[in-house]
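Example (one chain per record):
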Amino acid sequence: MKVILLRFGELFLKGDNRYLFESMLIKNIKNKLKDETFKFEKTFGRYVISNYDESREKVIIGKLKQVFGLYSLSCALELPSTVESITSEINKLSIGKKSFKVFVKRADKKFPVSSMDFAKHLGGVILDNNPNAEVDLYNPQVEVHIDIRLNGKSYLFYDTIKCQGGLPLGCAGKGLLLLSGGIDSPVAGYLVGKRGLEIEALHFHSYPYTSEMARDKVITLAKELVPFVGKIKLHMISFTKVQEMIHLHCSAEYMITIMRRIMMRIAEQICNKYELGAIVTGESLGQVASQTMQSMTVTGGVVEIKPIFRPCITMDKEEIMKISKDIGTYETSILPYEDCCTVFLPKNPVIKPTIDRCEREESKLDIDALIKECMFSEEIIEIE
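Predicted structure:
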């Protein structure tokens, strides 16, 4: 019988709480395949998917590769754990002139032949049937894997497909992603998702200075994250009045810093309102003026309780772009539509702002009234 073997990654490190992580991963797998017909079994350290529509195998594999917590998978044949049945199947293998190596993993120590001896036996069978083939223990063209489990079943497979790894989505709670429309913030959302954090997203728009196309771009980015992080509640906040007041009353060099401090205050209010545990940003140390150590100190300093997660903090732009391309958000991110961060952009933003100067600049504004107006403008879009 043809099956798909699933392997989890670091869940084995979780000790007494492992069952909680496993149950969440199983729930996520079943939810991911809710539109498919299949049977799911958990058996002695392996998850096995069987009785599925083989014509949809590629689709099913594509879905499983998006599930955080799965380390790898293999399409396999399920066989009885007997020397005869496994040998009979190996007899059918035709590899021509290719090099090969046999890997035998024997969880069932009652199996009558040792792993090494059984690998030698099966290698001999392959050579008998494929006289032009040769053994290569270091760089084989064909890998033949036999996984002998404790449930009386063995699995024969030839390929191991890498999955996302990480932790099951939802095991780390839920946070709020500041989703700008650029390259970095969707990557940040993906990375915290990989560590088990579900996300909602917050986007600040400055209509009419920013267009409807810029709004649609952010909605598209959220949709592109959904296959990895699940459905997203997207909070849209009008930031127009705030930026106009900052532009009118504050020193040009401090405009971006004050803007980001107000954004952080609003983000924490959204977190408190919807019981979200953290703020997530796409900041990368030193990438732009607002992402120096001093800038992040003064912008993050207005957040009273919630932690700020910056998963891209040590990455350079090339690393972030690579992940963006891998997860399918890059092409949308580079669409040339302005977001609120590019509106009223000063020529020389401060790179080492101080808290004292920020507070003097903010004293020129009615911060509480501006935040209240922003919160009143909130629009929520459900992205699935």
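Caption: Residues 187 and 324 are 6 Å apart (CA to CA).
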